[in-house]
Amino acid sequence: MGGQNPYIKDTEIQLPKQPYELTIIDEQGAEHKLMIDPKKIPYDDHGLPGSILDICMAHGIELDHACGGVCACSTCHIHVIEGAASCNEASEEEDDQLEEAYDLKSSSRLGCQCVPNGTSPVKIRIPTWNRNLAREPHGAEGMTTKDKE
Ligand code: FES
Question: Taking the mean position of all CA atoms in its chain, how far away is CA 15?
């Protein structure tokens, strides 16, 4: 699943017109410095075009996105540490989903809905845990006996 949620009104976004620096601190605390080229946006079909989730997926940086990036969960919760003013405003739907996230801060956003416009460097942190840690089972451990048949 991917793309946008047809049940929520279009979120106003302004895509970057010039390259900008995006720093991502991943769940393990590793820092990734990326130069985002506006010509490459959108990378794929993960959340809003140019969203932090879209960028993470394109650069191999893990960011959970249980709903596929359609603003219907809170697994893509991030903290925007710097450059928040250059990002689109959170919609009501995004704020509603964020209420479900652990470690909620004034800097909290959903990675699939947060789109920097490129007018300043942006730095984000991916929290180490969130409410949706009970993920879909992956691999044999999470399978029931019926699944293995
Ligand atoms: S991936 Fe579900 S809200 Fe962002």
Answer: 16
Tell which one of 70, 99, 114, 115 to mutate to probe ligand 1, the residue whose CB is within 8 A of the most ligand atoms.
Answer: 70
pLDDT tens, N- to C-terminus, the chain (149 residues): 455 666 666 678 899 999 999 999 999 999 999 999 999 998 988 999 999 999 999 999 999 999 999 999 999 999 999 999 999 999 999 999 999 898 899 999 999 999 999 999 999 999 987 545 544 444 334 333 344 34
**Cα→Cα distances 35→30, 40, 55, 140, 149, Å:** 17, 11, 11, 38, 47
| Residue length of the chain | 149
Phi and psi at residue 63, to the nearest 5°: -145, 115
Q: How far is CA 2 from the centre of its chain?
A: 12
Residue 112 Cβ inside 6 Å of ligand 1? The answer reads yes
Distance CA 97, CA 145 (A): 34
